[in-house]
Amino acid sequence: MAKFLEFQGKEWLRKSGLPVPQGRVASTPEEAKKIAEEIGKAVAVKGQVQAGGRGKAGIVKLVNTPDEAAAAAAEILAKNIGGNPILQVLVEEKLDIQKEYYCSFVINGAREARSPMLMFSAEGGMDIESVPEELLFKINIDPINGLQTYDAVDVCARAGIPAQDLSKFASFLSKLSQTYKKLDCQTLEINPFVMTGSGNLVCADCKMEIDNSSVGRHPEFGIKIARDLPGAPTELDLIGWSIEETDARGTGFLMNMGYDEVSPGYIGYHPIGGGSAMMGLDALNQVGLKPANYADTSGNPVGSKIYRVAKCVLSQPNIDGYLLGGFMMANQEQWHHAHAIVKVLREILPTQKPGLPCVLLLCGNREDESLEILRDGLADLMTPDGPGKRIEIYGKQYVTDTKFIGQRLLALSQEYRAEKES
């Protein structure tokens, strides 16, 4: 799912007519101070990162003056949460909170439902996970007609909302439901939404995740990659998405796996299919090697698409090897892979990465022809002193032998690194 940061989600809530605190995002302490001066009262400074538990992590701070806002922003922007640096803070007015509530709209995937679902509780805030199940009220929502007012009133009444406030809460939840549908959300969580001292309901936080398949309908979102990522997209992620976006023939999935380009033991990883990918990761893990990336070319892609993916994988700097992990008897014409890999290795090895270990496991339809294409096409590179001297080619006899493949790759990569460092 395409995930929005809090300030981005709140902007879409505001555009949909829902109440959010006054404020905006800052990238420096100086910007945070200026925003606090404009707001003119106590503010909350909130680190913007895809992570829960931000309050407990110390990246949400309440301050009283612009100078304090700048100091809080400097402290938060220096932090790293779950491997993700904090690049921005949201500076917004401190709310006069009378009570906190929780609501979320999610997809109920149960067979008997397969519909959006509202979860609502009169107990919101940082410890929502510890709220007893009996205090979390749920209702499935008609995917065509949305949340009906009488259903919203019913769930609020069951949660203990006073009779005089039922209309206010039902109207608030109905607007959220309409926004959830209009923006093609997978998840829309407001934790907390609050009642202020003046009796208004305000979205104090926002977690918004958009259905990847709907991103094409929403150019206004400016989403570069309609794909789940652990953090901001890397250059490799952007290149990989451009391959998939412009060629739908088979799969050409490519993404960064936290490769730091400095540490040894990273392997350019190119599996064929999801099950094959798991076995290839097992092969690497068994011997202490790490995937620099994840790249999947399955679903019978054409050779040109495989070539583009493989070239991206092999072009990563400072990798210690390349694994074509065909750990499945793939139901696709494997000679497309063979032709693409021959072309890429002939371009990369002689001039850019001579001697790079390349373990090629390929089996499935047209296996014999494919292995012959590999051997014939790379024969002149695979001489004892050639740039492909560490190419090894395997077929179905090793389709489940992850231990052997891992050990071969480890031995070759250690030899390669020692040669480079000598």
TrEMBL record:
The keyword Iron does not apply. GO terms for biological process: succinyl-CoA metabolic process; tricarboxylic acid cycle. GO terms for molecular function: ATP binding; metal ion binding; succinate-CoA ligase (ADP-forming) activity. PANTHER family: SUCCINATE--COA LIGASE [GDP-FORMING] SUBUNIT BETA, MITOCHONDRIAL, SUCCINYL-COA SYNTHETASE BETA CHAIN. PROSITE patterns: ATP_GRASP. The keyword Ligase applies. It comes from Desulfosporosinus hippei DSM 8344. Pfam families: ATP-grasp_2 (PF08442). This is Succinyl-CoA synthetase beta subunit.
